[in-house]
């Protein structure tokens, strides 16, 4: 018996699951992960390089994403899958292993567009919008960031003035994922009684969009500006159940949660590519994986991947138990994006000159992660959120 135990303990765990996190997942969680992973391998990876190079979003995948139940999958009712936070996180992990742009689409649709309607909308708004959004028939976007106000969103200039049975919106929102393909925009504006959310439908007079081009990051994603010029929105299109920055900030927490998971997928994709390359690329009559410097890089990448995955998993468990605090999201978002970006850079060095081509995913992920490092709260902002939690002192004002 002792011999058998010792023999079992000497078995090396798989390189991409060094801490055997798979054993911490339920059967349902593994099924969700494996289903999305298979979809990414079969439907995303064969085409994503071309879309990244051409600067286009693979819109043809939207019905398939909806068929898999990935749109608003963590919401209950209204045609949504109602799965756990961990299941949602695992789906984000696998989607971002394909491309950050694809995970961003899912995050915006579910966490930034559907969630505020679910959390703050009227019964009529929920019934009207959520079922077709879950089916992928209606695409949403989230309008908060402005040209002059990103991190300091509380000082937004976009205004909403009550005029009879309408609100009149004026202002501009910038860096909006899905903006020009969205059928409805969840727009946050300054009204007389505070920050309010509005559902602005495509085609509303005074509402126009323009895409942001010449991007070096998130190229397989639609990024737009939203323009409001005396745009009249019916009173019934205002989200009635929130009035303050609590509305948009709670949505950002939902999206940041998905990012904390998603970036582990990008890191894993880069690590797997570098590991396989190191074992097969021969220089000086031996695989480069036999060199100490390369092994050190791989060891560091594997260790940070394990740490990030465990952070994300505990974050999900806390969310499912109703114990999650925003500062915990900041810890995971900040750490996991940082380490994924460093992993992508290290993977590129192992790949050498080949790493700058689209034949390998490292530089594509690296470029994408530069945006993820900034959006949904910059690295600096999350650092200060953590610092305030530790000291009780506010560094923002």
TrEMBL record:
Q: Show where the Acyl-CoA oxidase/dehydrogenase middle domain sits.
A: 141-231
All copies of domain Acyl-CoA dehydrogenase/oxidase C-terminal, residue ranges: 249-390
* Gene Ontology MF term list: fatty-acyl-CoA binding; flavin adenine dinucleotide binding; glutaryl-CoA dehydrogenase activity
Q: What Gene3D superfamilies does the entry give?
A: Acyl-CoA dehydrogenase/oxidase, N-terminal domain, Butyryl-CoA Dehydrogenase, subunit A, domain 2, Butyryl-CoA Dehydrogenase, subunit A, domain 3
Per the record's keyword annotation, is Protease included, yes or no? no
Cofactor(s), by name = FAD
Q: Which domain of life is it from?
A: Bacteria
Keywords of the record: FAD, Flavoprotein, Oxidoreductase, Transit peptide
Q: Where is the Acyl-CoA dehydrogenase/oxidase N-terminal domain?
A: 26-137
| Protein's recorded name | Glutaryl-CoA dehydrogenase
Which organism's genome codes for this protein?
Reticulibacter mediterranei
């Amino acid at each position: 018996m002792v011999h058998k135990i010792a023999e079992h303990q000497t078995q090396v765990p798989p390189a991409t699951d060094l801490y055997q996190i798979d054993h911490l997942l339920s059967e349902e969680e593994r099924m969700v992960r494996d289903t999305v992973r298979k979809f990414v391998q079969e439907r995303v990876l064969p085409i994503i390089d071309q879309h990244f190079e051409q600067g286009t979003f693979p819109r043809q995948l939207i019905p398939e994403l909806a068929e898999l139940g990935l749109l608003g999958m963590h919401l209950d009712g209204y045609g949504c899958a109602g799965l756990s936070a961990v299941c949602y996180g695992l789906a984000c992990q696998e989607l971002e292993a394909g491309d950050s742009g694809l995970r961003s689409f899912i995050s915006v649709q579910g966490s930034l567009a559907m969630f505020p309607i679910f959390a703050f909308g009227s019964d009529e708004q929920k019934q009207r919008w959520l079922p077709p959004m879950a089916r992928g028939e209606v695409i949403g976007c989230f309008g908060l960031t402005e040209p002059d106000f990103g991190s300091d969103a509380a000082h937004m200039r976009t205004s909403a003035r009550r005029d009879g049975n309408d609100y009149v919106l004026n202002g501009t929102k910038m860096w909006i994922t899905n903006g020009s393909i969205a059928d409805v925009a969840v727009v946050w504006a300054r009204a007389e009684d505070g920050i309010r959310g509005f559902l602005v439908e495509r085609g509303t007079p005074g509402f126009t969009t323009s895409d942001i081009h010449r991007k070096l990051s998130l190229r397989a994603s639609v990024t737009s500006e939203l323009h409001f010029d005396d745009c009249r929105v019916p009173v019934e299109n205002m989200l009635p159940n929130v009035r303050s920055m609590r509305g948009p900030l709670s949505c950002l927490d939902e999206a940041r949660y998905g990012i904390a998971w998603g970036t582990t997928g990008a890191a894993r994709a880069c690590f797997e590519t570098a590991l396989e390359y190191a074992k097969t690329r021969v220089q000086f009559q031996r695989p480069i994986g036999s060199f100490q410097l390369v092994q050190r890089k791989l060891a560091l990448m594997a260790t940070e991947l394990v740490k990030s995955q465990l952070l994300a998993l505990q974050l999900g468990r806390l969310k499912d138990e109703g114990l999650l605090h925003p500062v915990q999201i900041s810890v995971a978002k900040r750490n996991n994006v940082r380490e994924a970006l460093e992993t992508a850079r290290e993977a590129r060095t192992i790949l050498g000159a080949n790493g700058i081509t689209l034949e390998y995913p490292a530089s594509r992920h690296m470029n994408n992660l530069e945006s993820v490092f900034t959006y949904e709260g910059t690295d600096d902002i999350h650092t200060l959120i953590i610092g305030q939690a530790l000291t009780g002192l506010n560094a923002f004002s």
